[in-house]
Amino acid sequence: MSRSEELYKKAKHIFPGGVSSPVRAFGAVGGTPPFIDRGDGARIWDVDQNDYIDFVLSYGPHILGHNDPDVLSLACDVARKGLSFGAPTEIELQLGEMIVSAFPCIERLRFVNSGTEATMSAIRLARAFTGRVKILKFEGAYHGHADSLLVKAGSGGATFGVPDSEGVPDAIARETLTLPYNDAQAVRDLFDREGDSIACAIVEPVSGNMGVVVSDDEFLREVRTQTERHGALLIADEIMTGFRQTYGGVQILLGLEPDLTTLGKIIGGGLPVGAYGGTGDIMKKIAPEGPVYQAGTLSGNPVAMASGVATLRKLKTPATYSILEEKSRKLADGISGAGRAYGLPLRINRMGSMMTLFFSENPVTDWSSARKADTALFRHFFQEALKEGLYLPPSQFEAFFLSTRHDDAIVSEATEKFQRSLARTRDWIDRGRPESRP
Ligand SMILES: *Cc1c(COP(=O)(O)O)cnc(C)c1O
User: Fold this and answer.
1) Cα(120) to centroid(ligand 1), Å
2) CB-based contact 290:215 (threshold 8 Å)
3) Chain segment 160-188, per-residue pLDDT in tens
């Protein structure tokens, strides 16, 4: 028995599913999740000393790879002065100023501890600001696990075929309206019918939680136009896309001007952080200035703020995003070339350094097309990739990422590993897709 298998057996007694977050349990792909011991740059090592090229990157935060020396150095300096005070700190102001200057649509913000808290609080704020109750989200979009948002919520639930969670009262779920992603006509129709009772629409400007699905212009424009026309707020959930596609939000690249934006992942550089922000007239409703209560013992934690500050500083170098784009395109080209060569139904949805390999005959543009993907084929491919030393998210419906530490040599090495994994996936099809051992 490997050390990971040993630990996993024990962990299953202590934690539901042996994990602290569901997708990590490998339920959709089978086998034992490797227990990770350490990471450096683009690589991670498990407790059995297997090494992997990491494309999970903690589900997005590590855009600078693991153990960036500048991030570690600032975080450690700040940590040595005390881990938390429950009082204002200068480093929190510094990160706040950096975010405000990177986002034309954020004038003021509030730090929280996770993405879930950010979206949950932004929705409470939107409801208070408009005096309305209903919210609109899109099918397959994940905005964290708050009750109102666990409706048709993509990857986690999707992976296990549980669309909604038990324990969410019908009375709450009923106030969440859902529409297909990328369907501008459906947005028009809904707002025509009941736009005046909608507090807000929340949207991932590029979806990452049904796998990567890029939005089309007309769809985003319609969401903005209709919310504005009917006095509803637009919340751009940029927890995954913030600082992933450009310095600031992907909203800048897409010309989207939301009322509120939610952030997380990269702005904490690998430590727990979330934030929500927007125009001053809306944000002044937050306590203690206004009547919308929202608080946090560890919010704005100085060590997490330092990790964020050092990360953003480093990302600000002009060529960061063009280099990431170039390496990501190279990798995607290499993978899709192999997909064609082996006659696999492979579609790569990509925006910048986030992408998903869908095993699908048809283009994936929304949740209903995403869920038609061949998950058995993905499962087999995933196991081949893991054996090759590629650490990918263990679900067809997740995005994977590159970091600035995925240099040309690593991208070439990874491309060959992807190619061999795809070749063996082809063999498996040719052998009649035999059931693989667990
Ligand atoms: C990760 C993510 C969340 C949830 O963030 P947590 O920190 O896991 O609570 C919300 N929305 C989007 C778009 C995300 O990618």
Assistant:
1) 11
2) no
3) 444 468 888 888 888 999 999 999 999 99
CATH match for 3-67+318-430 among 3.90.870.40, 3.90.1150.10, 3.20.20.70, 3.40.50.970? 3.90.1150.10
- 54, 237, 366, 374: the catalytic one is 237
In this structure, which residue's CA is closest to atom 11 in ligand 1? 143
CATH (residue range 69-315): 3.40.640.10
How is 242-263 classified by DSSP, letter by letter? TTTSSSS-HHHHHT---SEEEE
Name residue 391's beta-bridge partners.
54
* Mean pLDDT (the chain, rounded): 95
Instruction: Give the Å distance between the CA of 115 and the centre of ligand 1.
Output: 4
From the candidates 152, 265, 327, 417, which is the catalytic residue? 265
Asked if 264 and 239 count as a contact pair (C-beta separation under 8 A), the reply is yes
- Given the CA of residue 141, which atom of ligand 1 is nearest to it? 13
Based on the residue annotation, tell me whether 265 is a catalytic residue of this protein: yes
- Alpha carbon separation from 211 to 289, 348, 357, 394 (Å, rounded): 39, 10, 8, 12
pTM of the model: 0.96
Q: Does 77 participate in catalysis according to the annotation?
A: no
Task: Name all residues whose Cβ lies below 6 A of ligand 1.
Answer: 114-116, 119, 142-144, 204, 208-209, 237, 239-240, 264, 274
- Band of pLDDT at residue 438, cut at 50, 70 and 90: very low
- Mutation probe of ligand 1 site: the residue of 57, 142, 181, 263 with most atoms within 8 A of C-beta: 142
Tokens of 159: 């992976």
**Nearest 5 degrees, angle CA 431-CA 436-CA 437?**
145
Return d(Cα 306, Cα 300) in angstroms, integer: 10
Q: How far is the CA of 205 from the centre of ligand 1 (A)?
A: 13
For residue 34, the 8-state DSSP code is P
Domain extent listing, the chain: 3-67+318-430, 69-315
| Contact assessment for residue 134 and residue 175, using Cβ atoms and an 8 Å cutoff | yes
Helical ranges in 298-400 per DSSP H: 302-315, 320-341, 367-370, 375-388
